[in-house]
Amino acid sequence: MPRKIAAGNWKMHGDGAALAEIDALIAAHPDPGVGIVICPPATLIHRMAERVGNAPIALGGQSCHAARSGAHTGDISAAMLADAGASHVILGHSERRIDHGETDAVILAQTQSARGAGLSVILCVGETAAQRDAGMTLDVVTRQVMGCLPDDIDPSALIMAYEPVWAIGTGRVPDGDQIAQVHGAIRALLLSRLGLAGGQVPILYGGSVKPDNAATIFAIADVDGALVGGAALKAASFSQIITALQSA
Ligand code: PGA
């Protein structure tokens, strides 16, 4: 996968009718030159994989259980996501941390399980508004990066996503200096943790990325792409974000 990546997180949106969006995306970007990942609800992964075929769009899950199988009603394992056609999985999203009480330790175990199943990991980190106001942003992000990354993570199977919780779904976006500061800190952590290979790990920004702000965000230092929620649900808007990334 190229270093520049546009990833779409569909969250709990989309049914069979939404597969038409994938057809439109494939038609619009037959040879994108940037990485495209769509993370639909798990119910759509298999059908979406059939639609994607050999087109250059990767599919991902939105979370996974740490165990390979077992008595965990309602959960899905990394191996099951891979079996359905996923090559990636989002882990550590703030909606999982908040709604499902997923701690750094849980996310670390999920990351190990995902790697064991051969999935690449999109690892999300980010502060709440209260943490930013208290001047704790870099402490929080550092703790999350250090706590969620296994020592033996393969850097080529890792994508980082900085998603300030207060920017998700709110239309509020940090300014360029704020994004550059956190992305620079994540880059430094990756280099110290993973050595030179840490310099190659893509760092995506996520939180209210839209067609009209994408180019500005992609011009910020250490921003390698975006993890997009709402604007990834429709091919028309996600396509504009992909185009902005291609020319960044
Ligand atoms: P948003 O979501 O683009 O709708 O703000 C981003 C995310 O949660 O990944």
Listed once per kind, the bound small molecules are: 2-phosphoglycolic acid
Q: For the record, what is the CATH homologous superfamily label of the domain at 60-228?
A: Aldolase class I
Computed Rg: 17 Å
CATH T-level fold name of the domain at 60-228 = TIM Barrel
CATH architecture classification name of the domain at 60-228 = Alpha-Beta Barrel
Quick one: overall form? globular
Question: What's the rounded overall pLDDT mean?
Answer: 97
Q: State the secondary-structure class.
A: alpha/beta
Could you name the CATH class of the domain at 60-228? Alpha Beta
Head-to-tail CA distance between termini: 17 Å
Number of E-type strands: 8
User: What ranges have pLDDT less than 50 throughout 5 or more consecutive residues?
Assistant: none
Proportion of residues in helical segments: 40-55%
Beta content: 5-15%
One letter per element, helices H and strands E, the order comes to EHEHEHEHHEHHEHEHEH
How many helix segments? 10
Q: Please list the strands of the largest sheet in the order they lie side by side.
A: 1-2-3-4-5-6-7-8
Main sheet specs: 8 strands, parallel, barrel
Give the structure's gist in a few sentences.
With 248 residues, the protein is α/β, with parallel strands linked by helices. The protein has helices at residues 19-28, 42-52, 78-84, 94-99, 104-116, 129-133, 137-148, 176-194, 214-218, 235-246; strands at 5-9, 35-39, 58-61, 88-91, 120-125, 158-162, 203-206, 225-228. It has a domain at 60-228: Aldolase class I (TIM Barrel).
